[in-house]
Every structure is written in C-alpha cells, then in structure tokens.
Input
Amino acid sequence: MISYSIAEDRDLSGILELQTQNLKINLQPNEIEREGFVTVVHTIELLRKMNAPYPHIIAKSDQEVVGYALVMQKEMAIYIPILSNLFKQLKTIRIKEMAFENYAFFVMGQICISKDYRKKGLFKGLYTEMKARMKKDFDYVVTEVAIENSRSLNAHHAAGFTTIKEYKAEDGRSWAIVALDLNE
Output
C-alpha cells in the first residue's frame, strides 16, 4: 500500500538514501538509459531548509520512502549552483503573454522513484499530491530535465508538464525546461 504525504524531518534520510541509489554518477550507462537518473546531490541540512514552509512530497510503503518530489522555492536557488542556468532561462520565457517570472511558481527540485516501485503510478501520484497541496499558493511548478534523460522527460510529459524551452548550458549539456499549470 502506497501513501502520499509531506516529508517530516525523520523522512529526509530516506530521501537521501533513495537519491544516492539513483545519482547518475552511481549508475552504469545501461542503467542511465533504461532507468533514468538524478543529477543534484543534496545534504540533510539543505533538504531541511527546502522543506519549509512548503514540505517535500513523499510516497511511502510501510515506513520506507519509495518516492519523493522536492519542493524548492526560488530563494533556495543560491544553495544549488547547477540550477543557476534554469533561473537565467526562466527570465527569458513568456507564457500566456506574460513573463514567466511574474507568475507565482516554485521549482520541483528533484523527483525520484525507487526502482522496485517504478511503473506503478507513483510519479503521477507524487505530482497529483503536490498539485493539490500547492495550487492555492502557486500558478506553476517548473523543473528542468536533461534531454538525455528521456525516461524522465517522457514521464513529465505524461504527468501533464509542457516543455516551455530547451537550451544548451555552458558545459554543453542540453536541458528541457518543463512546467505544469497548477490551475488546469
């Protein structure tokens, strides 16, 4: 039985454990292509800072964290330098005739599902829970996905996200910025 809720302090170590198992640097090339990956490494202190006032969304089986979607307010970007490109790009995007940065939005800082729980609806379930909890205060959730991570990009599109821009970073990596309208 899977339950969705917000992360409490005791859940943060479970998030980090799942993250470590799915970091690109810890996977073989065939796993990266087949299973997808996460890029950013967080610390328990950073997860704790990010977890307030809007907590992360988690999926649990019994007491084990088997999926998570990290909620990150714009102010947290200073702690994750790899996201500086995302915020630069967001300043150049218009949606519905308005600059994207003028909308109330937050960044989905990372989403990950345990390998044993993939293809069971958890990805969509995490976003459904996130949308229900966040739509009263925000218009959009936005994130970026490495173009090479086709599994993640396809899953985001299937969950209702739209690609609002693609760009190439200074390091040569290609990214898709995807957004979900929380009011649709």
Notes: The radius of gyration is 15 Å. The chain has a mean pLDDT of 92. Residues 122-134 form the longest helix (13 residues). The chain has one domain: 2-181.
